[in-house]
Amino acid sequence: xxxxxxxxxxxxxxxxxxxxxxxxxxxxxxxxxxxxxxxxxxxxxxxxxxxxxxxxxxxxxxxxxxxxxxxxxxxxxxxxxxxxxxxxxxxxxxxxxxxxxxxxxxxxxxxxxxxxxxxxxxxxxxxxxxxxxxxxxxxxxxxxxxxxxxxxxxxxxxxxxxxxxxxxxxxxxxxxxxxxxxxxxxxxxxxxxxxxxxxxxxxxxxxxxxxxxxxxxxxxxxxxxxxxxxxxxxxxxxxxxxxxxxxxxxxxxxxxxxxxxxxxxxxxxxxxxxxxxxxxxxxxxxxxxxxxxxxxxxxxxxxxxxxxxxxx
Length: 312
Ligand code: NDP
Hints:
Elements: E1 3-9, H1 13-24, E2 30-32, E3 46-47, E4 57-58, H2 59-72, E5 76-78, E6 82-86, E7 92-96, E8 101-109, E9 113-115, H3 121-125, E10 131-132, H4 135-138, E11 146-150, H5 154-164, E12 169-173, H6 183-190, E13 195-198, E14 201-207, E15 214-219, E16 227-232, E17 235-238, E18 242-244, E19 275-277, H7 289-309
Parallel strand pairs: 1-2, 1-8, 2-5, 8-19, 10-17, 11-12, 11-17, 12-13
Antiparallel strand pairs: 3-4, 6-7, 7-8, 9-18, 14-15, 15-16
Helix pairs in contact: 1-2, 1-7, 5-6
Bound molecules: NADPH dihydro-nicotinamide-adenine-dinucleotide phosphate.
């Protein structure tokens, strides 16, 4: 079986930054792109908050350039999806969807998190054209417009409040008759005159000729009081949670109840020697490209130290 010194799973900002550092440190890193080559940024339009791009940059272009930068320093990029991990003993064995397996001395898990969607066909239809799962990324495009946020947790409240600073009006669409968010976060929502909370409301579709122009809603679905109504909006933001892509590592690494990998203190160490976690798979709090890139850097530095300390 092939043995890789530094195996990186995932090709978002965390994976590629780890590859750049590992490549420059002479670790001959191999990156497996995974489920979504380039990661979540490839689903947004323009990125305006990554330092160094005063005019902003297209998400796909940025990820393409990160990949080229990693390749420049000798990273090998492969396109397969990891489906099984055996971290019971070093070297660790990873198996891919094409049936191939490799073993590695160090592993950087940068498999990201996947934003949850409602599962409506219209979300796919309008993705990048009014549908977003990241207010911090895309909110700026909705200045002086009307938007809706779906969800009743802290993220939804935080995003609704953030968007209210930009948009003229924000609907918060909540399926229950109450918010799940912390009291402080609820206060901020209820005291903001720009936010209208629509309780006991579900979204059943979106409409618009050229991008999102509105949403079809249903109030008290499945009860005698059920009522259909439409709202006019320019943007539709999902904030119903993220799912970290950590399932296959769970037998060996600690995770929180949602599945985010728990790392040791400020480091990307997982507790399994030589196995590190970087980016959104280990970050329930910030989930930004720049924080993912920073943790990818840390993981590669850790991998380098581990390999040299163990003479590998
Ligand atoms: P949560 O799981 O806390 O909340 C998800 C929300 O989405 C819930 O209101 C849930 O409704 C709703 N939801 C889920 N599925 C659907 C669906 N299919 N249709 C409609 N609504 C749906 O996720 P968050 O991302 O908000 O938060 C994750 C964690 O991060 C939490 O622990 C949170 O406290 C924390 N966090 C903390 C922040 C802070 O302190 N500043 C900021 C952001 C997050 P229901 O209530 O009915 O289940």
